[in-house]
Description:
With about 130 residues, the protein is of the alpha+beta class. It has seven helices and four strands; from the N terminus they run βααβααβααβα.
Amino acid sequence: MEETLSIIKPDGVGKKIIGTIFKRFEDAGLEIVNIKRLTLTTEKAGEFYYMHKDRPFYPELVKFMTSGPCVPFVIKGENAILKVRELMGATDPSEADAGTIRADFADSIDKNIIHGSDSKESAEREISFFFD
Ligand code: UDP
Ligand code: MG
């Protein structure tokens, strides 16, 4: 059993697809074990994405992540980290496989609906970033 952290980003909340996204994970046999709804401060969003701080898209990413409420949640299941990444689809929705969340709902690489931890280490860090 694994736990991973996902975030429905402000564009996903704005599109009112929280329930749709939860259903995709539940239908895939995963369990949602913790949920929050909050608006990130610039400081917190910057800290969450610190690994990208030198990338050209970082300032816009932080601005976007603070632009409205987001929904961080914890997903549990066998191989949850990889399964969530597969259900999300590629970072750039134009490259995401058909039927993935990003292919179906994301407008662009910088407004791509959802975050998911990419490794055991980041899952641990990101879960404790939002949940005690
Ligand atoms: N991002 C962006 N432009 C890029 C690459 C990434 O705006 O060229 C944003 C996008 O929101 C992405 C986030 O930065 O989801 C983190 O990038 P990462 O490469 O970790 O992609 P992810 O793990 O979210 O698929
Ligand atoms: Mg990533």
